[in-house]
Amino acid sequence: MKFRRKSNADATPSDATLDAEGTTDAVQAGVPGGPWDESEQPDELLELERIDLGSLLIAPVPDTELRLQVDEASGAIASVLIAGEEGAIELRAFAAPRDGDLWAEILPQLRADVAQHGGVTADREGPWGTELLCQVQVELPDGQAGVQPSRIVGVNGDRWLLRATFLGRPAVEPENAAEWEAALRTVVVRRGKEAMPKGEGLPLVLPPQAQRTDG
Predict the structure, then answer these.
(1) With CB atoms counted within 10 Å of each terminal CB, which end of the chain scores lower, N or C?
(2) Which residue ranges in the chain fall short of pLDDT 70?
(3) pTM of the shown model
């Protein structure tokens, strides 16, 4: 599902292409805070067109496409990827206790997991607090060894944690990642009222326009 900027030549967008002009305006307006709980988003964001993925509501980001990452074992959607030419953001939402700091709890686990895979980490203070900079060795498409940098941000919400992993340029050049960070600020989390174990992933679903209908 691709997002594009609106031009004078555009008529109505197709089912697979959404106009991202509204998000651009919100980004330029410098909307503060965010990501948001569904019940707390500011008036500036209420009119944005969004892709409804169940637990995550994603506003179009200019010149990117939305990809859904599927867990091969379960067949469930595991995460959302907003991908552009120079980078991407992977989004995952988890159930969390009403009071507490789940991000601080899982940071040591993330550091240990990266180290177990032969990578290195460093902490960085960013707009949302402590972030984790990672470098993990990977096998490139040509079979040679390479390094994949990432920058992981955690945002504690009302009984939820949103984990955003920046990849590509916004990971290695955080000082030049303002547009990517602005896109993260417009994300809305729909936690739901049902009880869930701490750390369990909030369910993601296909957006209505992408679901198959028989008949």
Answers:
(1) C
(2) 1-32, 209-215
(3) 0.82
